[in-house]
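Example record

The entry below shows one chain as it appears in the dataset: sequence first, then structure tokens.
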Amino acid sequence: MTLENAFAEMQQFWPGGLPFAFGRGRAAARLAAEFGCPLPPDLVTYLDAVAPAEDVFFDTVGNPLQLYGLDRLGTQQPGYNFNPVTQQPLPDWNPAYFLLADEGADPVIMDLRQPAAGIQKLLHGAGSWDEGDTIADTIGQFLLCCAALHHALHAFEDAPIIDDTRGFCLAPQAAAWLFPRLKTWAGPHYAVWTANFHNA
């Protein structure tokens, strides 16, 4: 899914049309030089025309997903590959990982050496960065699914989560809106986006 197609879908449901103002930062050349390698076309388009100027938050079931603004994008990422207290690098972080966002410190990355692997959310605190899931094939698909989940949690029932004897469930109106759309929008990654809900 392209960024253009993703934002066209978002405009159908997001109040005001878009979840954030496009930064139009023309940041791809700077970041390609910083990483020392060409960036995939999807990422170039995102960095030059779309990436927000400041951090944007999408609500999830737990910690919000924090989409990084242009100033936070780069090779040095405190807590992941750099210790800001000791001013020393941290081992084990793949230098080809381009950090786009995090969810409760779980990093959301694109591997610049394997861009066809899509967008991955890795697990922090697991002892290595080998654990995680592919959550989208493209940046556009990732952003659309983030926006859709946020919308479902805010646009329908006052209490969007029901936690009772039936399990942990998305409330009926929100579920009726979100789940069919995510089956289309998330495609093979549907199970990752709905893993928290017993009624998905």
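Notes for this example: The first strand starts at residue 56 and ends at 58. The chain has six helices and ten strands.
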